[in-house]
Design brief:
alpha+beta; Immunoglobulin-like; 2 domains; four-stranded antiparallel beta sheet; 3 helices
Length: 151
Amino acid sequence: MRNFDFAPLHRATVGFDQIADLMDRVLSNDAGQSSYPPYNIEKTGEDGYRISVAVAGFSDEELSVEVKENALHISASKGDDAGNVTYLHRGIATRAFNRRFHLADHVRVTAASHENGMLHIDLIREVPEALKPRRIEIQSDKQLEVEAVEV
């Protein structure tokens, strides 16, 4: 894999640190990340999203969902049941995992539910009013003259 040096980007830009950090994460972390457990990311509305993680074999108490520093952390640890059960074949993976999703600015988690072996996490993007586009009326010179005379 290639290594890229983003130092010139840091020197030549102001306020774009997040882009360089994102590129560093993408180029360094994805190669070694496990694909367990499988997950889906759905778009549920114009500003709504849902992450669904397959967590068969885990109870609500064994799952943990946290948001820290613009990152969603999903983890699970299974209690040791080796003494209680003797398996002839063990095909359902219940090993501990820790999965992290980086959230964009203004994205927040609204709900989490666990049903039928799936952990569903609902997210919504809420852009503040100050950042939303707004229309500016363009006045002509004649309108400005009329307003000045009326005052």
